[in-house]
């Protein structure tokens, strides 16, 4: 019997994390991140490290499925509604569409775009600028950077605290 | 939602013999027949772009090659491209797969419209050939035309002095009838790419093209990038009865309008039957099914429902005798207080709705269908709508028939 690991949650001050988000295990959230209600972060099998200015929408699941190794998510990534991420490493400026899934121990480089409902297979490596169009069909766009979500994040940072409590400060609703 | 209403479990027989949902059927008021889209004439009413809702006439659409000139689609995933500005210049980007016009090597433009497409290289040559053929046709028809023209053979304007400019007029006509022919140069075929080269070209780039992408841009060769695709036009249909050629469904004028100018849907004339409770099956024992019958028409209906005999294996045997009922229409408020006649068959009565209980014995197979035949007369709606030359009384007392099959199993 091993005791359940203590929750070591580090949230940067400028990040907006809603109280309804479920966070367990060792999770560190960088500057300017926005986490919507009902997002799930499960770091029971290993820590999750999230960079700056990431967006996590409702019901997205970030779960570390490794054996104690950290899961690293870079800067300016957007995880849309009901997306699932079990990846080992996610780079910068990636866009994960609604209900898309990054399977166990896959590796996603920078500027990738996973379109809605598409899967990245287990242990697959997505190179830079890859677009997963359908399941198994990968296209590369040439040297374009994904648009950074600064405007959207700015609005959400101002708007979300008006309707939700911040994580760890105040009651959960719903 | 459709599973909840379960309208698909009740099928009506069309006049062509097919069984379909009531919502898919039309009713011709002149022939008193149920028509489906397959046995009626479907005509294209209007051509329009589904994206910008711009309507175009048929010759216009032919000129545009059945494409909208303003809207473009992503060549990769067929989603609509949206414009974006950078330094006061436009480029297009696909929101779904992040394809950009810059990837195709198209420079940013001043306006978001008119993006390049691949044109056929030999268009001019083709036009020349067409013109040449037209001239040849004219020469071929010239003797016929001059015969039809009824000019006395003895007289000719060639004998006249060129005093009044007649000579030149005649010359012009002659020129028109026998145009000068300049021989066209022969089209020299180009060597097409060999299969090896084609395949090499395809594998050169990182992105392989799917068959769909190639079919949508047949003019782009394998070493050229794909350009944005113009959105194909769509047609809006109107439906006409195939026997009396009267219009059954016609949309209102304008693309944006969603109302109907003429609509003759079967649900407005034929009683609507639904299963209202889940059916309980007991093997070899009498089971019950509760059907609700709704009158959605504008006049009361006299209805006789009789179960059909078991003619197929999957039909169930129904022991309920034929039922005669009258259902008031939904508009009529006077008949709201119809005496609640209740019997073993009639379970409830609610304004223009009646619940009927049918007893049946399930068959041995897994599929259970209940066949009903309806005979009904309507008082008002046909008298008003039928042709004036027809006897309205005859039309109103006409007994209409419909065959219905109810799917009892899930």
Tags for this model:
heterodimer, A: 174 residues, mainly beta, UDP N-Acetylglucosamine Acyltransferase, domain 1, 11-stranded parallel beta sheet, 8-stranded mixed beta sheet, 1 helix, 8% helix, globular, B: 410 residues, alpha+beta, 6-stranded antiparallel beta sheet, 5-stranded antiparallel beta sheet, 8 helices, 22 strands, 18% helix, 29% strand
Structural description of this entry:
The complex is a heterodimer of chains A (174) and B (410). By secondary structure, chain A is mainly beta. Chain A has a single domain, classed as Hexapeptide repeat proteins (UDP N-Acetylglucosamine Acyltransferase, domain 1). Chain A contains one helix and 19 strands. In chain A, strands 1, 3, 5, 7, 8, 10, 11, 13, 14, 16 and 17 form an eleven-stranded parallel sheet that branches. The radius of gyration of chain A is 16 Å and the shape is globular. With 410 residues, chain B is α+β, with helices and mostly antiparallel strands. Helices cover 18% and strands 29% of the residues of chain B. Chain B contains eight helices and 22 strands. In chain B, the strands form six sheets. Chain B has a six-stranded antiparallel sheet. Chain B has a five-stranded antiparallel sheet with strand order 6-5-11-12-13. In chain B, β12 (247-251) and β13 (260-263) form a beta hairpin. The mean pLDDT of chain B is 82. Chain A: Part of the dynactin complex that activates the molecular motor dynein for ultra-processive transport along microtubules. Chain A: It comes from Caenorhabditis angaria.
């Amino acid at each position: 019997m091993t005791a359940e690991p203590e929750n070591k949650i580090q949230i940067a001050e400028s990040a907006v994390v809603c109280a309804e988000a479920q966070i367990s295990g060792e999770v560190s959230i960088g500057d300017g991140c926005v986490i919507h209600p009902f997002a799930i972060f499960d770091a029971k099998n290993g820590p999750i490290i999230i960079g700056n200015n990431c967006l996590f929408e409702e019901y997205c699941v970030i779960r570390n499925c490794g054996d104690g190794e950290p899961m690293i998510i870079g800067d300016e990534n957007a995880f849309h509604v009901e997306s699932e991420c079990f990846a080992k490493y996610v780079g910068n400026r990636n866009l994960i569409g609604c209900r898309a899934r990054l399977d166990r121990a896959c590796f996603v480089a920078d500027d990738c775009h996973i379109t809605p409902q598409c899967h990245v297979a287990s242990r697959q490596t997505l190179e830079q600028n890859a677009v997963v169009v359908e399941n198994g069909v990968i296209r590369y766009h040439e040297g374009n950077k994904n648009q950074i979500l600064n405007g959207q994040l700015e609005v959400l940072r101002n708007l979300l605290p008006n309707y939700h409590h911040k994580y760890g400060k105040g009651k959960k609703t719903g | 939602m459709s599973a909840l209403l379960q309208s698909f479990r009740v099928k009506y027989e069309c006049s062509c013999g097919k069984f379909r949902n009531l919502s898919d059927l039309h009713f011709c008021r002149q022939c008193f027949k149920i028509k489906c889209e397959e046995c009626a004439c479907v005509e294209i009413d209007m051509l329009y772009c589904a994206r910008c809702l711009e309507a175009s006439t048929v010759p216009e659409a032919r000129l545009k090659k059945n494409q909208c000139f303003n809207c473009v689609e992503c060549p990769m995933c067929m989603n609509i491209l949206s414009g974006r500005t950078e330094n006061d210049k436009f480029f297009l980007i696909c929101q779904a797969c992040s394809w950009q016009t810059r990837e195709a090597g198209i420079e940013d433009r001043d306006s978001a419209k008119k993006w390049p497409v691949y044109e056929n290289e030999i268009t001019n040559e083709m036009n020349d050939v067409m013109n040449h053929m037209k001239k040849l046709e004219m020469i071929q028809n010239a003797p016929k035309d001059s015969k039809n023209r009824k000019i006395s053979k003895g007289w000719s304007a060639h004998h006249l002095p060129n005093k009044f400019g007649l000579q030149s007029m005649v010359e012009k006509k002659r020129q028109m009838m026998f145009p000068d022919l300049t021989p066209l140069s022969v089209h020299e075929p180009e060597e097409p790419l060999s299969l090896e080269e084609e395949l090499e070209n395809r594998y050169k780039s990182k992105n392989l093209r799917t068959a769909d992408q190639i079919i949508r841009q047949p003019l782009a060769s394998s070493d050229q990038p794909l350009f944005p695709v113009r959105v194909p036009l769509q047609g809006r249909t109107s439906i006409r009865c195939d026997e009396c050629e009267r219009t059954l469904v016609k949309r209102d004028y304008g693309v944006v309008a969603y109302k109907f100018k003429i609509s003759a849907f079967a649900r407005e004339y034929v009683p609507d039957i639904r299963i209202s409770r889940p059916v309980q099956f007991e093997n070899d024992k009498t089971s019950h099914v509760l059907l609700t019958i709704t009158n959605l028409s504008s006049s009361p209906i006299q209805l006789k429902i009789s179960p059909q005999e078991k003619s197929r294996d999957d039909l169930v045997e129904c022991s309920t005798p034929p039922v005669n009922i009258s259902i008031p229409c939904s508009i009529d408020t006077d008949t709201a207080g119809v005496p609640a006649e209740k019997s073993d068959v009639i379970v409830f009565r609610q304004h223009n709705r009646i619940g009927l209980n049918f007893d049946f014995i399930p068959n041995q197979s897994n599929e259970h269908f209940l066949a009903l035949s309806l005979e009904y007369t309507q008082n008002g709606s046909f008298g008003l709508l039928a042709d004036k030359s027809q006897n309205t009384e005859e039309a109103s007392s006409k007994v209409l028939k419909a065959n219905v099959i109810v799917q009892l199993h899930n």
